[in-house]
């Protein structure tokens, strides 16, 4: 039997150890995919979910270290158009059930993940001394609303119509965030926005809309039928109704489904 010198023996031992441990790493001991690449989910979501879904996405990634969640936020009507035009995405979350229903042939069954309410957003300190929806009909008051094809704009007009309040919007914005921005910048005196959006801004105050005048805002989420990552997308949608996700939504002021 040939003699093996100590240095050569150590080298052979190291090589053997490497051969034995390499298959273990390839089996996903680190939690990633076998090829070492992370799953990258693309989520199209309503603009009013910008802050809360970013927080939810970060929480999800901590629990799923092999998945990265990327968001594209816009008004729900724009998201619908993107899906119809074939935008590559895995999950859709809209600010109303009507928008989601128009894509029934392009999504799995949706599930509601959160709810919201409407408030009147006013300039800091409420200089116009607004007290309710009726005050939005004042002559000379600059009121901004989301566009009528946007869920927030449709909801706002519904509550105004029910109270028979006529409002001439100084501009119809493409999203509720854009409408809120007009008030923050002093370009409008008031507007009807989601409670959570107003709460996220330190540049506006709010006037409550009573429950009897308000409307229930639902946020449905669904996996897109052409999702590149269907299994991971379904897991993410399920997770959005988990206790961990509901804590994130509650911290942002959203109501439970």
From TrEMBL:
One of its GO terms (molecular function) is molybdate ion binding. Molybdate binds at residues 48, 76, 152, 176, 194. Keywords: Metal-binding, Molybdenum, Signal. It comes from the Bacteria. GO terms for biological process: molybdate ion transport. PANTHER family: MOLYBDATE-BINDING PERIPLASMIC PROTEIN, SULFATE-BINDING PROTEIN. This is Molybdate ABC transporter substrate-binding protein. It comes from Streptomyces alkaliterrae. The gene is modA.
């Amino acid at each position: 039997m040939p003699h093996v010198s100590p240095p050569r023996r150590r080298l052979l031992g190291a090589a053997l150890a490497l051969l034995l441990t390499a298959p273990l790493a390839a089996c996903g001991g680190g939690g990633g995919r076998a090829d070492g690449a992370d799953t990258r989910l693309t989520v199209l979501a309503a603009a009013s979910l910008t802050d809360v879904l970013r927080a939810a996405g970060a929480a999800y990634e901590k629990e799923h270290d092999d998945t990265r969640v990327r968001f594209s936020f816009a008004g729900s009507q724009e998201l619908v158009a993107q899906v119809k035009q074939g935008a590559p995405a895995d999950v859709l979350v809209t600010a109303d059930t009507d928008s989601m229903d128009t894509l029934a042939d392009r999504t799995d069954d949706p599930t509601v993940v959160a709810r919201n309410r409407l408030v009147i957003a006013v300039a800091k300190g409420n200089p116009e001394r607004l007290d309710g929806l009726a005050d939005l009909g004042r002559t000379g008051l600059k009121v901004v609303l989301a566009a009528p094809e946007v869920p927030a704009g449709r909801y706002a007009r519904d509550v105004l119509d029910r109270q028979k309040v006529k409002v001439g919007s100084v501009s119809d914005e493409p999203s509720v965030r854009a409408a809120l921005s007009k008030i923050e910048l002093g370009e409008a005196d008031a507007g009807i926005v989601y409670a959570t959006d107003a709460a996220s801004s330190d540049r506006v105050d709010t006037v409550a809309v009573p429950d009897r005048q308000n409307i229930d805002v639902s946020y449905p989420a669904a996996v897109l039928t052409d999702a590149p990552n269907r299994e991971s997308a379904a897991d993410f949608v399920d997770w959005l109704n988990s206790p961990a996700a509901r804590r994130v939504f509650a911290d942002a002021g959203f109501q439970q489904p």
